[in-house]
Every structure is written in C-alpha cells, then in structure tokens.
Design a protein that fits this description.
Length: 400
Amino acid sequence: MNIEHITADIVTDSRGKPTISVTVMVGEHTGTFSVPSGASTGEREVRALPADAAVAQLETVVAPTLVGRDVTDQAGIDAALHDLDTSENFATIGGNTALGVSVAALKAAAAVRGVEVWQYIAQLFTEPAQAKAPRLFVNLINGGAHADRGSQIQEHQIIPETDNVHEAFRVASAVQRELGDILTNDFSEAEIGIGDEGGFMVPTDTTAAPFAYINEAIVAAEPSCAVAIGTDVAASSFGDARGYTLTEQSLSSEELVSLLTALRAEFPRLTYLEDPAGESDMSGFSSFLAANPDATVIGDDLTTTNHDSLQAAIDVQAVSGIIIKPNQIGTVSDTLATMRLAYQHNVRCIVSHRSGETMDDFIADLAYGTKAFGLKAGAPTAKERLAKYQRLLDITAAAT
C-alpha cells in the first residue's frame, strides 16, 4: 500500500488557464486529481503557485518525501505536506500542489481498498449526516467577477428543496430552460452570453432584475418540489475598509444589511445568502444573521474552509452555513477538520466548485461521502459543471 510514484501534468481549466493534474501510483492502482482555481478568492486562502512552478515543487520536493509512505495514511500524508512548507498558506510548495497530492492519494487509497471514493471519505469522516443526499445549489445567472456584464451580485442560484438528487436535477434543468426562454424574449443571444460558471449573463446593472427573472422562471417551470433562491453576494468584491459601493450607491455595513433584508422581503424565496458582508466585516455578517434568522447565512470569503476562521464566525453567531472548497485550505484532512467543526455546531456545509473548473468530479464524492447539506456546481449545461452533477446522480443511483 506504499506510494510508488507521484507525477504531475499541466492541463487547462474551464477558463483556458493552466492548472495541474496530479497522479499517485500504488502498484496497479492510481488516483488522479485535477486542481481547480477561483476568480473570486478570499485573502486567507492558501496560495496557488503558477502551474509550472507547482510541477517543479512536486517533482523536486514533494514526491521524494512522500514516495514510500502508506497511501491509506491520509492524516500522515497531509501532515507531511505541511511539514514540507514553512508558511501558513502553502506559499512554498503551493496550495495547488498540496491539494493535488492530497486528493490523488485519497483516490488511490480508495482504489487500493476496493471502495468508491465517497465510501472511503465516509470512513474518514464519521459525523452524523446533515442530509440524506446534498441539495443542489445551481447558479443560473452569473454576475460580478464571474461575468463581463450584469449585476455586481456574483451568483443567482436556485435550490430545489429536496434530497432526491434526480428530482432536484430535473427541476433545476426545467427552471434553466424556462429562464433561457424568458431572457431570449427580452434580449438577443449576443446581449446575454454565458459566464464563468455556465450561467446566463443578463445585461442589467440593477440588483433586483436577475432575481425577478429567476423567480419568473421558477413559476413557469411548475416544479414538483419547493424551489428556493440563493445568491453569492460576494460583498468583498464591491467593498473596502470605507464601506460598500453597489450600483453606484455608497453604503455602510448597516445600509447593506438593510438593502439585502429588503431584497429578501421583495423575493420571499431568497433564503440562502453567501457572503452578505465583506471578508473583514464579521459584524456585518452577525447583523445580517440577527436580522434574518430564517435565512441560511453562508460564509465563503469570510471563512475560506479554515477551521479557525469558522470558529471565530461561530463565536459571534456570524454564519449558519459555510462554503467548503478544498483548494482554499490545501489538504483533505484540513477540509474534513473544518467540516467536523461545522457539523458539531449545526452549520450547514455546501461543498463547492470554483469558477476555473476541470472535469474532475471529486467534490461530488466529498459532498455525498460526508452527507453534506449541499453541493454547488454551477449551471448544469457547462460540461465541467455537469460532470459533478452527473457523478452525484450516479452515486445516488448506485447507493439506493
């Protein structure tokens, strides 16, 4: 069960940018992981090296240290990766290098044990389930850093309120089709366009319009289950130490809380809100959650899949949900540690893709293996996003 070889190749992500694909070999068994990257990144995320530098670190530093180790010792492998890097954010060997090796080793270990990746994750993670199967968080309208036009709000999502993944996917696809028809009635194809995560780009700079279009599409689709609306406000993208500037309005933290609370009153389906305040505005998160206790208030830039950052948010009642992105923290073990803390404090975990994605479907196994509350993977028509949904569909079909 000892690692025999570790190799890396440079591949391109969904934005055409170079990233790395790492393979861990153990006898006849292998595990390969292609590392994604984000456009909207929190300040506290681990540092990703350029792809060529990451490959060099793997070949000269990481592989010589890890070859010969027991591939099933996930904690030991991830601890060794930290030992190789003297920084707190993998600035030396690269967070992308570390995650590539960590996940590839986990996949190889699952192959050695003769189990599915999600089953191996379930063996490592033993917290009580948050859901029978993850809810789908489907980003249908892209804005902010994920689009070159439209609202400053970064994501406009639907969440079919069911843990039946097949029903949720059918409903999401139907709403997306209706949304496409609605938008093409108002705009030309050239005006609409497709954003980084496969969602539509709507040529409007008003905050409310994308939510109105999605609400209309939900009604038109006549869904078989309740459908909520979600959003990634990504407030850090239009804020700084002085406050926020949204649709040319200068807003204090309190005024942004009021604006978003009013938006919820206008659209009652809007019950999931990610990063409603900036990554340094913990009090803004706390104020928003206090004003909206019936909403799931989700940290991403605020928490960056970091155990200590999540603990700080829990201490001041700033979040009731957290985005889980393994490449924010660098290893499987660190990811699971943060998720354990969330589960122990009833903080909903939504396992998420990145805007620069690959065809790798690991996050679907992670979401199902941990029985997380949700999986966020973008619009289902984009191939890198569809791969995650299809993997989850396959897992749930085989597991039931």
